[in-house]
Amino acid sequence: MTDSTVFPDGFLWGGATAANQVEGAYDQGGKGLSVQDVMPQGIVGPRTAVPTPDNLKHEAIDFYHRYAEDIALFAEMGFSVYRFSIAWSRIFPKGDETEPNEEGLAFYDRVLDELEKHGIEPLVTISHYETPLHLAETYDGWVSRELIGFYERYARTLFERYGSRVKYWLTFNEINSLPHAPFMSGGINTPKEQLTDQQLFQAMHHELVASALATKVAREVAPQAQIGCMVLAMPTYPLTPDPADMLAVMDADHGNFVFGDVHTRGEYPGYFLRTLRERGIDLDITDEDRELLTNTVDFVSFSYYMSIAETADPAKRVAGEGNIMGGVPNPTLEVSEWGWAIDPVGLRIVLNQFWDRWQKPLFIVENGLGAKDQLVEVDGRKTVIDDYRIAYLNDHLVQVGEALSDGVDVLGYTSWGCIDIVSASTAQLSKRYGFVYVDRNDDGSGTLERFRKKSFDWYGDVIRSNGATL
Ligand code: BG6
């Protein structure tokens, strides 16, 4: 049990999804293709030249047609917030048009209507791994400075249309994943192995400028909007107490922190400038860019799934199954079925780290356990007895309570994949995160029917008690 007063009144409880992982209807309503439409195997496999029928995201869980039913389920759990993303290619099918696609805009009007009906606050990700494919193939994604203008037009369109209805916005999902997944994260068509540091850092700079520009536009067009950045948080521990390992940790942290540092401080930190100098990278940063970067965010949001260890010793540098962001496995921690280290305390650590460093309100916008679920029948009702998921989420939320007691300012918590969705890294449906089971399998079979899991009732109790039942 947590201290029942630790979660403040108004703490936002809910869940999160992304358009490409739930909507389906990939070619309906005037939508153009996105990078996801040619990634049938997620980031673990190669992209295809054209969309192929084995891509589960093309139908996903059909949220495009079932959003009302799904939002009603979220409301039944008592969600006060729902994080979802807008598919860029529904609004600007190719990305470089001057006029938006009204049918796409109208779809998100309907989603917002439904949320309003249930009193659920929307939290909107502007770009969640869904760059229009045309921008990837014609401009090489964020390597090109032209993307800043296209993104500005897209963000402005959203602020103008939904600015009076949406308070919380995130500019780029896991912006610091760019070096690890350049095609999915940055729409960069050049294969990762051929990408130079110069191109990669330039793309990063363009995204950071675009994020700051969106913040500036929001201040003008939707003054009540709260703009957040979104980073993938992965606390890094030294493999041993050797100072060389601690230095390796510092370097890894810097590689991740730089994104939040720029978003919160409005300029590049010294350690990053040193990296540029030492790698001989001459970034194209204009005076206007520097000015734009001073448009800092209102809050910092992040995903948290796992921690990782670091070492300076090449002999100990083994690749673990789950460490797609680098680092080495931590021998003290258990891992999920996909090799992701389970570390609830790491969430408290990262909350304190970010708060100490940035002094901005924090929002945990992704956290959860991907696991294989078994549908069973109990008292004539189909369900999943997912005690493992309940244990994972409970342990993590207890640590959020600890961080709140530490004095960290946390706005809310949206668990990832609150309804089963298609996985981003492996494009599987069998990697399930939801409180709601969706009858769809990796081979595409299934009725798409929804079933409440045991965790559905558990989370409802947590929300209704504002964390006291943890
Ligand atoms: C985050 C992404 O990296 O992790 C999500 O923002 C993703 O899109 C989530 O789904 C979980 O990863 P996966 O690979 O298990 O879906």
From TrEMBL:
<protein>
    <submittedName>
        <fullName>Glycoside hydrolase family 1 protein</fullName>
    </submittedName>
</protein>
<feature type="active site" description="Nucleophile">
    <location>
        <position position="366"/>
    </location>
</feature>
<comment type="similarity">
    <text>Belongs to the glycosyl hydrolase 1 family.</text>
</comment>
<keyword id="KW-0378">Hydrolase</keyword>
<dbReference type="GO" id="GO:0005829">
    <property type="term" value="C:cytosol"/>
</dbReference>
<dbReference type="InterPro" id="IPR001360">
    <property type="entry name" value="Glyco_hydro_1"/>
</dbReference>
<dbReference type="GO" id="GO:0008422">
    <property type="term" value="F:beta-glucosidase activity"/>
</dbReference>
<dbReference type="GO" id="GO:0016052">
    <property type="term" value="P:carbohydrate catabolic process"/>
</dbReference>
<dbReference type="InterPro" id="IPR033132">
    <property type="entry name" value="GH_1_N_CS"/>
</dbReference>
<keyword id="KW-0326">Glycosidase</keyword>
<dbReference type="InterPro" id="IPR017853">
    <property type="entry name" value="GH"/>
</dbReference>
<dbReference type="Pfam" id="PF00232">
    <property type="entry name" value="Glyco_hydro_1"/>
</dbReference>
<dbReference type="InterPro" id="IPR018120">
    <property type="entry name" value="Glyco_hydro_1_AS"/>
</dbReference>
